[in-house]
Design goal:
alpha+beta; 12-stranded mixed beta sheet; two-stranded parallel sheet; 3 helices; globular; GLPGLI; signal
């Protein structure tokens, strides 16, 4: 009986937070800047020379995964995209040069209509991925911390995720693992939104961590002097998320076959991520 009462109280608290959020979000808009960091674990065969190569590859990957993103938002919509920057030349070491091909994704979310549009590019072809927003079963935790001037609350969800990894014989292996995604959100910014495709909490998500990728908000401008225009992207071949996943898997397999058929003296490694 006591357990049921606690659960009911928690649901009522969450519902109340959402009601306050919705009332406060009228004519609310802003711009949030996020910086990314991705943990890199790139392994090669044992040997002193290979260890040096591994270190060089990890350093190059680390630098290229450090990006900056902008989330523009109002009470119902948001647009999330990577900020353009002039990349400094990256000298190759030991004949190895790493290139990250992550396209120029633009993610539009409509919280009210529960849908998203992702304009993305893979291997030179542009796609427009349109589908329903997949809601997460967030667990609200009794932990807080400050991010800048904002008091943030902790939430998390668990999910099984399939990833592809290179094997020692240059093949591809699919691994399924449980990933715990942790979010820190602030009701002080009363929108149920966040970076990338994250949403669904009673306040703007300022930090996300899924074990490998971390996104942290570094700046927020609320109700800027100039009105924000959020325009849904329209360029690319329109597909569903499932269709895009199938296309991406096929293209990745084709790329691996091409790489395996080439001479091992090639000096460029290309990593591609999209969607």
């Amino acid at each position: 009986m006591k357990c049921t009462q606690k659960v009911t109280q928690k649901v009522l608290v969450v519902a109340a937070l959402f009601m306050v959020l919705l009332m406060n979000a009228q004519d609310f808009q802003g711009v949030a800047t996020y910086k990314s960091h991705r943990k890199v674990d790139f392994k090669v065969k044992e040997g002193n020379e290979n260890k040096e190569v591994q270190k060089q590859i990890q350093e190059q990957l680390k630098r290229q995964f450090q990006q900056e993103y902008t989330l523009t938002f109002n009470k119902n919509e948001s647009l999330y995209k990577k900020n353009e920057k002039l990349e400094a030349p990256m000298p190759s070491s030991s004949g190895i040069k790493i290139t990250i091909s992550d396209g120029s994704d633009i993610i539009y979310k409509n919280i009210k209509e529960q849908r998203f549009t992702n304009q993305t590019e893979i291997y030179g072809k542009q796609f427009l991925v349109k589908d329903s927003l997949a809601g997460k079963t967030w667990e609200l935790l009794n932990e807080t911390k400050n991010i800048g001037q904002y008091t943030c609350f902790k939430a998390q969800f668990k999910a099984e995720v399939k990833t592809q990894t290179l094997t020692e014989d240059n093949g591809m292996e699919t691994i399924t693992k449980e990933v715990i995604t942790t979010a820190w959100y602030t009701p002080q910014v009363p929108i149920s939104n966040g970076p990338a495709r994250f949403f669904g909490l009673p306040g703007l998500i300022l930090e996300i961590n899924d074990g490998d990728l971390t996104l942290v908000c570094t700046k927020i401008v609320i109700n800027p002097a100039e009105e924000i225009a959020i325009v849904e992207p329209k360029k690319g071949k329109e597909v569903t998320q499932q269709e895009f996943n199938e296309i991406l898997e096929k293209k990745n397999n084709e790329m691996m076959d091409q790489m395996n058929s080439r001479s091992k003296n090639g000096n460029t490694v290309i990593f591609s991520s999209g969607g």
